[in-house]
Amino acid sequence: MDKNHKGRSTAVFTREEVETLLSDTGLPKDRRDLYALLFLTGMRIGEAVALRWNAWDASAQPLGRLRVSRAFHRKQRREKGVKTERSREVPVHPVLARVLDAWRQEGWKRKQGRPPTADDLGVPSRSGEHRRDPVVHAQILKDLELLGL
């Protein structure tokens, strides 16, 4: 259940706004990749920040898939089951597959100083920990303002 029942209907982005958020090189690559996960999968922030590399099956056909079964609970500072209490598989759009592959092959290592393992978080904070949803939300708002959106 949403805390703000009216908020979801007003949280709408145009295709052009999403493309700008995902491609503008004025934004850090790790944030653009996190935004790609959020916009191209419909995951909640807590689900996206708990996603680990072993959740991505890039070989699945006709599209790769992400297994969404965990979320990060910021107040308890631990991973837990997803809000709906039901794991799900999310198809990976070809654009997202390219983003994830480039991030895994180059960006993650550049940011964390080593190649990722299957158990590593996909989009960790700069310290290598789970990102916090209020921080991610504040960053999105800041980035929207920076981009004039």
TrEMBL record:
Renumbered residue ranges of the record's region Disordered: 108-132
Record GO biological process: DNA integration; DNA recombination
Protein known as: Integrase family protein
Domain of life (superkingdom): Bacteria
GO molecular function, one term: DNA binding
PROSITE patterns: TYR_RECOMBINASE
Species name: Corallococcus macrosporus DSM 14697
Keywords: DNA recombination
UniProt xrefs under SUPFAM superfamilies: DNA breaking-rejoining enzymes
Domain named Tyr recombinase: residues: 8-149
